[in-house]
Amino acid sequence: MIDVLTNMLSYGFIQRALIVGLLVSVCAALLGVSLVLKRFSMIGDGLAHVGFGSLAVATAFNAAPLAVSLPVTVLAAFLLLRLSERGRIKGDAALALVSASAVAIGVFVISMTSGMNTDVDNYLFGSILSLSSGDVILSVALCLIVLACFILLYNRIFAVVFDEAYARATGMPVNVYTTVLALLTALTIVVGMRLMGALLISSLIIFPALSSMNINRRFKSVSICAVGVSVVCYLIGITLSFVLATPVGATIVLVNLAVFILSLGTRWLRAFARSQRVK
Fold first, then answer.
1. How confident is the model at residue 60 (pLDDT cuts 50, 70, 90)?
2. Contact between residue 169 and residue 9 where contact means Cβ atoms under 8 Å apart
3. What is the pLDDT of residues 18-50, one digit of tens each?
């Protein structure tokens, strides 16, 4: 096992993937708990589709992918919230409208220019080879911004997630913090999409949160547990991907799925044990 890890860490692309992947896992897990509790978790999937569309267009015109996708995805997050809150198009309908349109635009533009190529496949399904040193520096900076904002705004995010009506009654600008939550999610999605792909990045937001909720009940405990689950699943997934030569994104998702099933079984066993004690 040690020989496998030593061999794996000798590759520069693995080192870059570990740095970025672990930071994205932490950010996604923290944001995921809030998004799942607020029943807004599918925004991650919608923003991933927007990110794919912008990356595809950037690739078609030989532009810097992250430099294009970052502002576009952030703008899409803001647009989704405004459509959902004030427009006639509500909730999942607004999400479907924006995400489907973004994917269609991306596929259309790139098929009319350079054609569907390996870069597009990497954005859809992820690629451990796609991260350059410049991408790592930018990704680390963005992830640190996300973590800093979440920690600084932790109490306000907690209030908005658990009791929005009370937060509004106390004069808290709920819409502002909801927007911040969506924008932080957009940043995390853009950074992680190079590794996980547009079709799989939302799993890093949803699975660790759901798994930890099966084990814990308090918000802080759920958040800490979600981070632990996300990091462990990422490390196991990337190791299995290296050993078995399987796609890294899909392998990490399957490890998360296995942990979720295990946590669900643990929850059922606890419920059964409590029912037996009552009898």
1. confident
2. no
3. 888 899 999 999 998 988 888 777 787 888 888
What long-range pairs does 226-230 form, CB within 8 A, spacing at least 24? 226/29, 226/30, 226/32, 226/33, 227/25, 227/26, 227/29, 227/30, 229/29, 229/256, 229/259, 230/25, 230/26, 230/28, 230/29, 230/204, 230/256
Q: Would you state the structure tokens that stand for residue 175, as one six-digit string?
A: 């819409």
Rounded Cα distance between 263 and 181, Å, is 27
Report the distance separating Cα 160 and Cα 106, nearest Å.
Answer: 34
φ and ψ of 27, to 5 deg: -60, -45
Q: Report which residue type is found at 86.
A: R
Q: What is the CA radius of gyration of the chain?
A: 19
State the DSSP string of 190-212. HHHHHHH-TTTTTHHHHHHHHHH
Residue among 67, 194, 16 nearest 119 (CA) = 194
Q: Residue 254 has what pLDDT? A: 94
Mean pLDDT of the chain: 82
Amino acid identity at 70: L
Q: Which amino acid is at 36?
A: V
Q: Give the integer Cα–Cα distance in Å for 69 and 76.
A: 10
**DSSP per position, 105-170:** HHHHHHHHTT-S-HHHHHHHH--TT---HHHHHHHHHHHHHHHHHHHHTHHHHHHHHH-HHHHHHT
Are the beta carbons of 57 and 109 closer than 8 angstroms?
yes
pTM metric for this prediction: 0.86
- CB contact at 8 A, 227 and 26: yes
Please say if the pLDDT value at position 117 is more than 60: no
3 state DSSP class of 30: helix
**How many angstroms separate the CA atoms of 279 and 275, rounded?**
6
Grade residue 96 by pLDDT with cuts at 50, 70 and 90: confident
For the ranges 26-30, 117-121, 135-139, 172-176, which has the lowest average pLDDT? 117-121
